[in-house]
From TrEMBL:
Residue span, Aspartate/ornithine carbamoyltransferase carbamoyl-P binding domain: 2-123
Keyword set, alphabetical order: Pyrimidine biosynthesis, Transferase
Catalytic activity: carbamoyl phosphate + L-aspartate = N-carbamoyl-L-aspartate + phosphate + H(+)
Biological processes, Gene Ontology terms: 'de novo' pyrimidine nucleobase biosynthetic process; amino acid metabolic process; pyrimidine nucleotide biosynthetic process
Span of domain Aspartate/ornithine carbamoyltransferase Asp/Orn-binding: 130-279
Lineage: Eukaryota, Fungi, Dikarya, Ascomycota, Pezizomycotina
EC numbers, comma separated: 2.1.3.2
Similarity field: Belongs to the aspartate/ornithine carbamoyltransferase superfamily. ATCase family.
Listed InterPro entries: Asp/Orn_carbamoyltranf_P-bd (IPR006132), Asp/Orn_carbamoylTrfase (IPR006130), Asp/Orn_carbamoylTrfase_sf (IPR036901), Asp_carbamoyltransf (IPR002082), Asp_carbamoyltransf_Asp/Orn-bd (IPR006131)
Gene3D superfamilies: Aspartate/ornithine carbamoyltransferase
Pfam family, one: OTCace
UniProt name for this protein: aspartate carbamoyltransferase
Pathway assigned in UniProt: Pyrimidine metabolism; UMP biosynthesis via de novo pathway; (S)-dihydroorotate from bicarbonate: step 2/3
Protein species of origin: Aureobasidium melanogenum (Aureobasidium pullulans var. melanogenum)
Length: 283
């Protein structure tokens, strides 16, 4: 469906699949790509959006998430929610009559990012089957990694984990990879050997906002960097991905390398979210 959306946008610019539909965007955490791509996706489908962030909502007056969702549920045909609470998507789904789309719930999941990541891999490489995918960086709080690992269980692939021990992949997710026979190399360093075998290197930002102990953040924040020197060891047809935003973990010198897929990844995201909105909201 995402591929059909891509062709439709390239051909017509705007489709009228969701004409007269209204999408409510509710973001309790900062967002550039997710919020704007949902906004763009809805408008490309001929629909309209209401955008609300926490600073302009009644949560400042003590309103509960449940009451806010019930309010928006009266106005729109679906709600996109990002919230720092791991249980927020469940709370919202219980409160609403209309569909809730999870745009990130705490450090737990980011399912729409996982869909666009998988679509990126398929568009750039052809398939996820037979690939070696290396996750690098903050794997503990990196909800995009957790969600993508869940999707990748449907594919025959090997997953490498590269992270400081303090921010390694949660054991529940790691044991799932291991039980499925997908777990590959585990390392605290991105070695030339790991790079050379990778078809996808997926970088993640060390998220300062998730750390209760800032001294631990300072210890690990610059420990892993993907640079032009890193890619000297990489395959010619591999790709580098990143959900963005980035800090120092992904050097800007990589941007002009044709293997840098992270800006294309954003565009793929709009097509995937168009597909999701159409499937969820079309009559």
């Amino acid at each position: 469906v995402a591929s059909e959306m891509r062709l439709g946008v390239e051909r017509d610019g705007v489709l009228d699949i969701l004409k007269n539909k209204l999408l409510c965007l509710m973001f309790y955490e900062p967002s550039t790509r997710t919020s704007s791509s949902f906004d763009a996706a809805m408008k490309r489908l001929g629909g309209q959006c209401i955008m609300i962030n926490e600073s302009h909502s009644s949560t400042k007056k003590g309103e509960t998430l449940s009451d806010t969702i019930r309010t928006l549920d009266q106005y729109g045909d679906a709600i996109v929610l990002r919230h720092p609470d791991d249980d927020s998507a469940d709370i919202a789904a219980e409160a609403a009559d209309h569909p809730i789309i999870n745009a990130g719930n705490g450090s737990r999941e980011h399912p729409t990012q996982a869909f666009l990541d998988l679509f990126t891999i398929r568009e750039e490489v052809g398939t996820a089957n037979g690939l070696t995918i290396t996750f690098v960086g903050d794997l503990k709080y990196g909800r995009t990694v957790h969600s993508l690992c869940e999707l990748l269980k449907h594919y025959d692939c090997t997953i490498n984990l590269v992270a400081p021990k303090e921010i390694g992949l949660p054991e529940k997710v790691r044991s799932g990879l291991q039980s499925r026979g997908q777990l590959g190399a585990e390392s605290h360093e991105l070695t030339p050997e790991i790079v050379a075998k990778s078809d996808v290197i997926y970088c993640t930002r060390v998220q300062k906002e998730r750390f209760e102990d800032l001294s631990l953040y300072e210890k690990v924040k610059d420990g892993l960097v993907v640079s032009a020197a890193t890619l000297k060891h990489a395959k010619k047809n591999m790709i580098v991905m990143h959900p963005l935003p980035r800090n120092l973990e992904l050097s800007p010198e990589v941007d002009n390398d044709p293997r840098a897929a992270y800006f294309r990844q954003m565009k793929y995201g709009m097509f995937v979210r168009m597909a999701l909105l159409a499937l969820v909201m079309a009559s």
